[in-house]
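Bumping with the actual sequence this time:
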Amino acid sequence: MSFIRPTKVTRITSGFRVPERRDHHGVDYANPGTHEIYAIADGVVSKSYVSTSYGEVIFIVHQIAGQTYESVYAHLRTGSRKLTVGAKVKQGQLVGIMGNTGWSTGQHLHFELHLGRWNVEKSNAVDPEDYFKGKQYINLHGHMDEWNHYPEEVPPIKAKHAHSIPLKPSKFNGLSYEILGKGKEKDTYIIRTGQFKVRKIYAPRDKDSSITATPLYK
């Protein structure tokens, strides 16, 4: 399952950690009128309350291909928040209506996506726009003999990881893997492999690897 957008509104008034707002850990979608807000994927409601800052807000935890995500839908219209803690939701299910509650200077949806669970420091926050572009694939090109991969919680290291067999792009004239999300470190990605299940790899976009909308290698 891939994520859908939480709203049909495409106007972004503040992006993720933009230079003028480094502490803005989400994306603001804004438009006047009545706009429904939707769950981006199947999940379970982890929080549903009125916050001083978030206003009317709902948190949903998602489990996708072995990875935990948590999405946050803030500043919902008063009275539109119907989901309660523990409720199971389906992708596309109505979460509420775009509003102007909490610390808000105009009607908008403040949306956050976290790779892992939400925390006060927002250390797991990722740019949601990177996850709404449809499927993407990491391509490891065929001139590479070996490519390291890691458990999700292990930072990439230069030496061969002691507990993994390297991927072998040259053996298969190149390898392509679906990207499930970004890792916490720069140029790292969470991928789905056949043999090793969900893993993390370091893959800068250069002559050795690339990212495409469709796989280069079957």
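The tokens above came from a reply further down the thread. The CA atoms of residues 10 and 108 lie 11 Å apart.
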